[in-house]
Recover the amino acids of this structure.
């Protein structure tokens, strides 16, 4: 069981928008802006797509956006494309100076 | 372009020590902005942070693994290492090394893992 709670799967059609939630606690998501999202294809290493709740690393499409409200962070993928089909993990820095991760969400493009 | 490449045995016997090394190329390890971390992923499951090590040897570990983990760094060889003792089947996972950024700039402080190694599956079995 992971420290952060994510839905196991989310699906959408090409061109649609989907949102993945990541629920933690006041000890992690609720305390800091240090929430990240990673994209992972099967057999590959995770790739950073969002950091500091809302920031995109260089080279990441603006179709990826992040937000946070209270103890829940969210990743939205707009204008969904086939290449977005992957697993997505959230992570948060904690008040114990550790990192915690979510269990991952499988995104399916219908 | 920074690259991280991991090496180490893919099979470890129960009760023995898992040892992995991560070689860093294309960049320096000696910056206070970067820690060097290890994260693992059990088959079909989520990610678990194991810990980080700074170039000077300062470490921070996941409390759940702290008693069994040792991380070290050798800047002369541009690599850092993980040792996990007394392994059991529960330690079977893909182990990733990654660069942990702790950076202060004009827009504030930032924390994230940016560059990752390719991952190594370590199976604990007799």
């Amino acid at each position: 069981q992971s420290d952060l709670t994510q839905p196991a799967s989310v699906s959408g059609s090409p061109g649609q928008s989907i949102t993945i939630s990541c629920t933690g606690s006041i000890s992690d998501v609720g305390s800091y802006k240090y929430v990240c999202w990673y994209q992972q294809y099967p057999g590959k290493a995770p790739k950073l797509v969002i950091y500091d709740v809302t920031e995109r690393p260089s080279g990441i499409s603006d179709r990826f956006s992040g937000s946070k409200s209270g103890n829940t962070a969210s990743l939205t993928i707009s204008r969904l494309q086939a290449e977005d089909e992957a697993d997505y993990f959230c992570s948060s820095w904690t008040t114990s100076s550790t990192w915690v991760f979510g269990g991952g969400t499988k995104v399916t493009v219908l | 372009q920074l690259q991280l490449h991991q090496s180490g045995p893919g099979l470890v016997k129960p009760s023995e020590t898992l040892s992995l090394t991560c070689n860093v190329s294309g960049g320096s390890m000696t910056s206070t902005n970067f820690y060097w971390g290890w994260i693992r992923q059990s088959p079909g499951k989520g990610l678990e942070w194991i810990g980080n090590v700074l170039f000077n040897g300062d470490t921070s570990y996941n409390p759940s693994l702290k008693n069994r983990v040792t991380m070290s760094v050798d800047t002369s060889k541009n690599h850092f290492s993980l040792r996990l003792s007394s392994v059991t089947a529960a330690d079977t996972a893909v182990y990733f090394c990654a660069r942990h950024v702790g950076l202060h700039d004009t827009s504030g402080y930032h924390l994230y893992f940016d560059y990752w190694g390719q991952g190594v599956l370590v199976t604990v079995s007799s």
Observations:
- Chain B touches chain A at residues 39, 45-49, 60, 62-63, 96, 98, 108, 110-114, 116-119 (CB under 8 Å).
- The longest strand of chain B covers residues 93-105.
